[in-house]
Amino acid sequence: MDNRYRKEAGDQSEADALRHLQAAGLKLITRNYRCPGGELDLVMLDQQTLVFVEVRFRRDRNFGGALASINTRKQQRLLLAAQRFLQTHREYQKLRARFDVVSLEGDAGAPKLQWIKDAFCG
Fold first, then answer.
1. How much is the pTM?
2. What percent of the chain has pLDDT over 90?
3. Which of 7, 49, 57, 67 lies most in the core, judged by the most C-beta atoms within 10 Å?
């Protein structure tokens, strides 16, 4: 799989995840928040809860699929990015926060979407 396809599939997966989460009532704060050491795909509000969303796409379940790709190291990078986000966006510091994962597996045109709330602890 070439890098251009990966980028397009990743962008489409994020857009699909965002639509799904917004349809469920979440509100977008920002997309692709980058900082030294990490990135947050989506940062959203679920009523009074700040939600850091990791979006993962895999065409097949080889090597465990989309969910299995979020190992301890990846979780630590997400936690670091979330901490940096909160340091620079103080208005969200008093809210409860959680880490969700939206996994998409299968054909990029019609993947199976799974949303896992509180996927891991921060």
1. 0.87
2. 61
3. 57
